[in-house]
Write a sequence for this structure.
């Protein structure tokens, strides 16, 4: 298969999991794996120049996520002035997308860019470091990770797998999704077949829906044929590209399931420890810069794409009713309590997260929420 075809195919195959990871398709399964080095992560070419392999859970160049990973790789390369070159591999190029974490853990690759909730099969606690239902917004995630004890807990969790993690991107609040009918009461969720993977899917099941997991390329035809009644994806920018507006016009908000999905960069612990203090600072601040920059890009592109969806394609925006959101909130609370009970470290992270969430809610409601409500009032401004 030609490289160009692969990238196209991989982009369409994206999304076996909650965000947009490229799922393991046949091409990826068949792709030759590079032999694992005998020494863990042996990246050194010379003392002055080394190449670090970055694997990703995205197709190369995938808008927002793949492009952000490339920007991070290029930033580290530029800021280290030739000491480090980060070579990026799209999902399936060096290892299958969802084996990125294992590849970094065992030293086949030096670092990954992905979303840590993809590793929830290893520990449910990884969900907290991407997004959980009715969890934290992007701003609140930054506050928790940088100043609320979140990073220390993430370090503790990932150290068990030989990985040093960093926040390295954010999609912002995702949309609730595309529905083939209006959703007026929680009863409308009974029997609803919705593409909604991960913890969001568990919440959907709690309120009577059916959670369907589909690769990205199968979502559009499934929605068109009626095999599914609804789907979530990301937000206007990525959703416009998927063409869901051609099948249904009901576009609901907000997305309770991914209120501010944090993307992550994980580095093999031995590689991290081998860096001098200059290069450690470069990696740390390049990740922090990308964490912020990707969020800005998603917000800018979502605004443009929302305008196109509504004004060119006649998409009908609908807010989920308070009654529906409360039922979803109750179900989310149940799901998160069950997640917490998985093991002692997950419980410890949940307890810290819950305490932080309470304080964040108090401050956010009288800062961002109060201000944006005030700004939306009817008054004369700039017209
Ligand atoms: Ca999503």
């Amino acid at each position: 298969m030609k490289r160009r075809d692969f990238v196209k195919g991989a982009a369409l195959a994206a999304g076996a999991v909650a965000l947009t990871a490229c799922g393991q398709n046949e091409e990826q399964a068949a792709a030759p794996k590079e032999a694992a080095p005998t020494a863990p992560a042996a990246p050194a070419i010379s003392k002055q120049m080394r190449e670090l392999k970055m694997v990703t859970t995205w197709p190369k160049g995938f808008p927002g996520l793949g492009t952000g990973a490339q920007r991070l790789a290029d930033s580290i390369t530029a800021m280290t002035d030739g000491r480090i070159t980060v070579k990026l591999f799209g999902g399936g190029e060096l290892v299958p997308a969802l084996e990125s974490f294992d590849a970094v853990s065992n030293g086949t690759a030096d670092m990954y860019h992905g979303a840590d909730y993809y590793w929830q099969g290893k520990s449910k606690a990884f969900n907290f470091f991407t997004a959980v239902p009715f969890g934290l917004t992007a701003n609140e995630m930054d506050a928790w990770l940088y100043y609320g004890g979140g990073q220390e807990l993430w370090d503790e969790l990932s150290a068990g797998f030989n990985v040093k993690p960093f926040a390295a991107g954010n999609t912002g609040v995702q949309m609730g999704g595309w529905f083939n009918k209006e959703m007026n009461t929680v009863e409308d969720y009974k029997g609803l077949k919705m593409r909604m993977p991960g913890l969001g899917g568990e919440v959907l099941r709690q309120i009577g829906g059916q959670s369907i997991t589909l690769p990205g390329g199968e979502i559009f035809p499934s929605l068109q044929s009626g095999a599914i009644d609804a789907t979530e994806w990301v937000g206007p920018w990525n959703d416009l590209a998927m063409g869901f507006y051609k099948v249904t016009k009901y576009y609901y908000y907000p997305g309770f399931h991914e209120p501010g999905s944090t993307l992550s960069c994980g580095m093999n612990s031995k590689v991290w420890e081998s860096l001098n203090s200059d290069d450690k600072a470069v990696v740390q601040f390049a990740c922090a810069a990308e964490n912020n920059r990707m969020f800005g890009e998603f917000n800018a592109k979502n605004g443009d794409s929302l305008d196109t969806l509504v004004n060119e394609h006649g998409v009908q925006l609908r807010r989920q009713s308070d009654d529906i959101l409360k039922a979803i909130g109750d179900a989310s609370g149940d799901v998160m309590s069950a997640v917490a009970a998985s093991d002692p470290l997950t419980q410890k992270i949940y307890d810290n997260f819950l305490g932080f969430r309470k304080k964040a809610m108090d401050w956010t409601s009288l800062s961002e929420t109060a201000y944006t409500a005030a700004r939306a009032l009817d008054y004369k401004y700039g017209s």
